[in-house]
Amino acid sequence: MIKAKKSLGQNFLHDQNIINKIITIKEIEKKNILEIGPGTGNLTAKILKKKPKKFLVIEKDNELANILRKKFNNKIQIINGDILKIEENSLSDETLTVYGNLPYNISTEILSKWILNINSKKIWFNCLILMFQKEVADRIISNFNTNNYGRLTVLANWRLNIKKICDIKPTSFYPKPKVESSLLFFEPKENFFYLKNPKNLEKITRVFFMHRRKMIKKPFNELFNNNFELLSKLGINLNLRPQNLDFETYYQLTKEYENLRG
Which of 153, 165, 189, 237 is the most exposed place for a label (fewest CB within 10 A)? Predict the structure, then answer.
């Protein structure tokens, strides 16, 4: 049995019921597939049975990459590298259906990177089917005026429609993680709030949520220099806290920030 590497956040999914649920979420026959962190290939094998057109996998672990080569031969294209260092927009000329049991220690970093690097002209994926620590998933799908609402919520919901598929018990993995997991389904939004540069949204939310329990007066003044005209325009109360502002307000704030800087 392969020994999981704690440093890479490895927990291998082996529950066949969950694997079967994952591969029925989206029709993938003759589609282009990307799997992040295939591990020992349990999900990979089931995806192959669905007869995809092209199948890429990204596996950072050299030992696992070699095992996958022996197990699947030329049926999959293996990229032995770090997903955080790979330019996702250049992976394929055609859009990809993406599966990922993401390492929990870098899952938010991966998702944030993908959102901030979305090319407005052509999005590189048609959907994302991703597994997160339940606590992180709860933050992604939360709404404003809740304790889970934060930077990741605002970023993810800017360009993506998100649906929770199910929660997954630790016993579905080897070795068993100490936390529950959740499976989320993401699709690009056809209509979204246009921003010149998504990194400006990242900056706005970072400054506002830096002190999430405090009132927004300080972050607002830091970014907008006591612009009372803007306060009136957007109808913002500086006595509110970051979690009290809805998605649209953060997108409007980002637009105004971009306008002020030309």
Answer: 237
